[in-house]
Amino acid sequence: MKEILIACGDVDLLRTLVADLPADTFKPIATKRGAGVVAKLSGRTLSLAIVHAQLEDDSSQQLIEDLRSLGGHVPILLLTAEAPPSTGAFDIAIQYPLPGPVLRNAIKRLTEAASSDHDMEKWRTFYKEVKARLELQHQHNYFQILGVRAGAQHHVIVKAFDALSLRYHPDRYNQFRAEKWGAALHDKCNALYKSMTEAYAVLSDRRLRARYEEALGRGELRLASEETAGADKGPRSIDEMGNSAACKKFLKLAQSAIAKGDWASALQNLGFAQSMEPQNQAIATKLSEIKQKAGV
Question: Which tens digits make up the pLDDT trace of 37-90?
């Protein structure tokens, strides 16, 4: 549960505040005093602080200032017995007591805003990660692109590619494409994943890998297109394993589920695909791999 600080000098009000919290959402840290409280919270992550203006040691203002000094922004809800101030070092101020639903609505507004800010910062960081990795692709050989050492065994390459797919597969970010930032992130992931898929297609094929390692010995980071054009590299993505349109539909759903780490959905859709093409060895092999990952 998320931790929430509740500071109130009146014991009865303190109990009411704890009782009015959204059910099964927060773990309250209750106190009647404000002095020294923040120091005791060192190393803990607060989702919200509710501070009543009347504390046992008259230190509500100091407590708010101490909370503002914590790393990261802790949303602060100030409660007052009379008309609340319009400005201050708090996020919202309301008069209390008041009905439980009103308090819970104020808490919801603060926590959702903080969550949104945190999520956007997370996506910004991830976008920078993808962009930086993409910019290095032309300098890296196929082993480096997949994050494995030169000469890595086949099963290591497969494991590395699966792990990269879980993080960078563009299907994971389809839901955000309506947003400008989401579309930019999807485009970067799509370009990066194409590079990773190209590396995997070569290194997972014995003949292509042998040619590539010879080329790498000559200082060439890529095979010439004519060297790979006629080669049987097998399916580059899961949906290419199927032959019929109906089978491909379920394979695409499975691929999306794998990218999200949803093994149950992946197994279900792979099972549907296999029922349509029971002689398809590629689907059977992938189904076996996912069963191992899911511990089935």
Answer: 998 887 788 889 999 999 999 999 999 999 988 766 789 999 999 999 988 889
Output the CA torsion sign for 60, 61, 64, 70: negative
Which pair of tokens denotes residue 121? 């910062």
The string of pLDDT tens digits covering residues 14-32 is 999 999 998 888 899 999 9
Strand partners, 48: 4
In degrees, to the nearest 5, what angle opens at C-alpha 232 toward C-alphas 228 and 238?
A: 105
pLDDT tens figures, 218-270: 999 998 765 655 444 444 567 778 888 888 888 888 888 887 778 888 899 89
**Contact at 8 Å (CB) between 235 and 241?**
yes
What's the CATH fold of domain 2-115? Rossmann fold (3.40.50)
- Asked whether the predicted pLDDT for residue 116 surpasses 80, the reply is no
Look at the pTM and tell me if it is higher than 0.85.
no
Strand order in the sheet with 46-52: 26-31, 2-7, 46-52, 76-80, 92-95
> 140-234 belongs to which CATH class?
mainly alpha
The domain limits of the chain are 2-115, 140-234, 235-296
How far is the C-alpha of 248 from the C-alpha of 225, rounded, in Å?
Answer: 27
Q: Which amino acid is at 190?
A: N
Q: Give the alpha-carbon dihedral of 248, 252, 257, 260, to 10 degrees.
A: 160
